[in-house]
């Protein structure tokens, strides 16, 4: 019997949750925003550091009962990561395929891919990223996601593939740039320029351009990354892994143009466009799941044939309207 539920395991997962912006809509929070404005005027650098801490703090959504039941079908494990204790789950035997969720998400969100991949002879590993779900940490970052993926590969073995959603896709690509070997990569609803969400966030808070630039440099030094190198315009040409980009034309959280930009920047990438599935329902569409599993299962001969045919864009029917 399939371990995958028939209904989607929904949980709110924005690529970069503008939680602070949303909170500021009530009268009480407007007062807090004004207080932050005063804080910004009298101690701008301290206020900027506070804003950065907000930006890197995800929302721990509450999993549905169905998601909890599904995760119970897997083998639970904990990873003593450099970022703290990480909670994860695995299924099946064989070469591992790693599933990476997005910002403010959980590993169980990619549940629909588990049983089809197990049926193809793979094992499947998913996890709650630092600061998410059942894993430790008050804050998180794209860099932390990537580091945990690297540590999981060290624990469970070389990847047969990675399927990643939203900001998790940028983290997977960054992990590859840091040396994680991924022979087949699928990016679903992934932003092409993660840094732009930071720009929008600091602009909303009223940080000046010079102060925003200062905190960006400080974060680079403290966390250990370069903002420009998180862009797919920079990463894409440097990565030769076969890539499938899946993106919905009506995605309201990460515009479809981002998927197009990633495919354009990544040599040999294939873009699969869906309609009517948005940013989250796309993870549970039968057509999408089938296409992703088929892509992970393809061999190098099929890759060469596809490259020769110059297939860059296809439409995946929206079979699920849930």
Low-confidence regions = 1-25, 304-314, 316-322
Structural class: alpha/beta
The tally of helices reads 13
The percent range for helix content is 40-55%
Q: Give the strand order of the largest sheet, numbering strands 1, 2, ... along the chain.
A: 1-2-4-3-5-6-7-8-9
Percentage of residues in strands? 15-25%
Helix and strand run: HHHHEEEHEHEHEHHHEHEHHE
Shape: globular
Rg: 19 Å
For the biggest sheet, the summary is:
9 strands, mixed
Short description:
The chain has 322 residues and is α/β, with parallel strands linked by helices. Helix content is 42%, strand content 15%.
Note down, in words, how this protein is organized.
This protein has 322 residues and is an alpha/beta fold. Helices cover 42% and strands 15% of the residues. The chain has a nine-stranded mixed sheet, sandwiched between helices. The longest helix has 16 residues, at 27-42. Residues 1-25, 304-314 and 316-322 have low confidence and may be disordered.
């Amino acid at each position: 019997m399939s371990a995958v539920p028939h209904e989607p395991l929904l949980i709110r997962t924005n690529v970069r949750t503008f939680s602070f912006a949303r909170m500021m809509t009530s009268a009480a929070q407007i007062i807090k925003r004004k207080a932050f404005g005063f804080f910004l005027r009298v101690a701008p650098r301290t206020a900027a550091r506070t804003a950065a801490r907000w930006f890197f703090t995800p929302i721990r959504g509450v999993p549905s009962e169905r998601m909890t039941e599904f995760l119970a079908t897997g083998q639970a494990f904990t990873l003593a990561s450099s970022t703290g204790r990480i909670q994860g789950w695995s299924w099946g035997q064989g070469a591992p395929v790693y599933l990476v969720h997005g910002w403010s998400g959980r590993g169980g969100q990619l549940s629909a891919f588990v049983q089809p991949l197990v049926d193809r002879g793979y094992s499947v590993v998913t996890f709650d990223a630092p600061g998410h779900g059942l894993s430790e940490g008050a804050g998180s970052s794209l860099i932390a996601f990537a580091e945990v993926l690297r540590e999981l590969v060290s624990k469970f073995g070389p990847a047969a593939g990675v399927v990643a959603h939203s900001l998790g896709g940028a983290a997977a690509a960054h992990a590859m740039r840091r040396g994680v070997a991924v022979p087949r990569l699928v990016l679903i609803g992934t932003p092409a320029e993660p840094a732009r969400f930071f720009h929008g966030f600091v602009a909303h808070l009223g940080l000046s351009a010079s102060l925003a630039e200062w905190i960006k440099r400080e974060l680079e030094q403290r966390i250990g990354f370069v903002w420009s190198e998180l862009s797919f315009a920079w990463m894409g040409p440097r990565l030769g892994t076969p890539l499938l980009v899946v993106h919905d034309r009506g995605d309201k959280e990460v515009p479809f143009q981002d998927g197009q930009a990633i495919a354009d920047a990544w040599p040999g990438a294939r873009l699969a466009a869906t309609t009517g599935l948005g940013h989250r329902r796309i993870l549970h569409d039968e057509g999408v799941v089938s296409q992703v599993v088929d892509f992970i299962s393809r061999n190098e001969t099929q890759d060469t044939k596809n490259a020769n045919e110059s297939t860059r864009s296809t439409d995946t029917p929206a079979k699920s309207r849930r």
